[in-house]
Every structure is written in C-alpha cells, then in structure tokens.
Amino acid sequence: MIGIFDSGVGGLTVVKEIQKRLPGYQIIYFGDTARLPYGTKGAGFVQKYSSKIVNWLLDNGAKIIIIACHTSSAWASENLKRHFKNAPIFEMIAPAIKEALKRTKNKKIGIIGTPGTVKSQAYERGLLSIDSGLEVYPVACPLFVPLVEEGWISKKITKEIAEEYLKPLKKKKIDTLVLACTHYPLLKKTIRRVLGPEVKIINPAESLAEELSIYLAAHPETALQIKKGNDHRFFFSDAPYNLKKISQICFNQEIVVRIEDPF
Questions:
Q1: Both 102 and 198 in a single domain?
Q2: DSSP at 18
C-alpha cells in the first residue's frame, strides 16, 4: 500500500491526485485529527508524531510513505528519511519547488501556508538555494483551513478573506503561487478570482503525484510490492469534523473511515 498521512482531512486532496495519477494502487491514509492542527505546533511536536505515524503506517502494510502535511514536510521529513531508511519517503515541498521554478517567468513567487510552514522557511530556503535571484514572498493564511473544513468554498466571506491575505502578493506582482497547505487546493477557484488568470497556481499534490509516478516507473520492484486494488483504508485518530462534506468535495462521495488513535 501507499501510506499517506496528514494532521487532518486536508491530505485527502493528495489522495485524490495520487488516485488520478496512479489508479489501482491501494492507499492507507492516517489523519491525526486528535492533535490537529500541526500548523501551529512546534517542530519537536511535529517530528515526534510524524515519526509515530510513519511507524504505524509501515506496521500496517505501507511500502511507500507520503508526507501529505506541509508542516510535517517542513519540520520532519529529513528526520524521517534518516530514521526510516528502508522505505521511500516523499514530501510535499521539493516537487512544488521544482514546478514553481519551471513556471515562473518574472522570478516572483508567492507561498501561502499555515503559520508553521511559513515559520519553517522551508520553501524560501529551497527556492533560493537553487536560484538566489528569486523574490519569494511567504504569507500565512490560518483562516483558510477552518473555512475549507466548514465547507465554505464559495462563500462571499471566503473571497473577502482571500483578498485580504493575498493583497501583499498582488502588490509584489507575483506570477506564481504555491499552495503550501493540503486544504488550499479546494480554494483554488477563489484564489484565482482574486489573483487573476495570469498568476500560475501550483498545487504541490499534483507535482508530488507526478514525481511518485516517475519513481515507480523507474523502480518496478517497489511498484510490485504495493498491493493493488481500490479497497482504500482511511484512519483518523479522532472523528473528523465535517468529513462528509470534505469527502464529497474531494471524491464526489462519502468515504468509509475508521477511528483509531494508536498513540
């Protein structure tokens, strides 16, 4: 199975893209809803529970690990790769950086994410280490997550909040924006209405799904180890708020979940 984890339901957008790109591979998903949000937690907390979740996913049959959470990707990915050397581990940041570098023309890139992701400076460091001539503008958008989980995707107030958050990025005349939180792709239409069609919007889940597809094609022995089928398994450490609405938005159907907190 492909093991995917997030601090909550936002990682379902990553599941959606992997299913689209790699249909037929079985997925096991863990959302740590008992301890969300990770975006406002410290690095030590995120590293501790990310490690526990990866261990649990491997114990439950995962052969590949996807860190769907951007905060975990920023704070914990290097530790996880050092600790779990026998499992390929993919995170959200590197694929998004590659795509942003490919798409930008004026070298002005905006990053929107949770406070934790923005505080980590992982995107800025990654982008500037490749091209020091870039202008990178990070903005924390903490209200976007509760708006998505409330299902307020197209509400007037959501657009008004987006306009306020994105105002400094419009002033900087960015031409590329990275959605550095798994919830934010569900607000892509609203964000596009605010920024205009000329700004390229990067959904890191799409970039990661493409990278995973390339990896599996180059490593057929790993691909053969992954259980095939559409019997995906969704686990949450506590009953997710508004899961029915979020799963309908992501998959056009309600998903069957199991509540289990092994920690």
A1: yes
A2: H
3-class DSSP state of 257? strand
Of 181, 201, 216, 255, which is the active-site residue?
181
Specify the residue for token string 């410290």: 42
Q: What kind and span of H or E run contains 235?
A: strand 233-236
> Side by side, which strands form the sheet with 200-202?
135-140, 108-113, 176-180, 200-202
Per-residue pLDDT of 86-111, as tens digits, reads 999 999 999 999 999 999 999 999 99
Asked if 187 and 76 touch (Cβ cutoff 8 Å), the reply is no
The domain total for the chain is 2
Same domain as 194, residue 109:
yes
Tokens coding 151: 């299902």
CA 33, chain centre distance (Å): 15
**Which domain range does residue 112 map to?**
93-204
181 assigned to active site: yes
CATH number of the domain bearing residue 237: 3.40.50.1860
Q: Which one is catalytic: 69, 92, 174, 187?
A: 69
d(CA 204, CA 188): 12
Q: Show Cβ contacts of residue 148 under 8 Å, excluding neighbours closer than 6 positions.
A: 10, 183, 184, 186, 187, 246
Residue 230: predicted pLDDT? 80
Which backbone phi and psi does 177 adopt, to 5 degrees? -130, 130
Per DSSP (E only), the strands in 118-216 are: 135-140, 176-180, 200-202
Q: Is the pTM of this model over 0.85?
A: yes
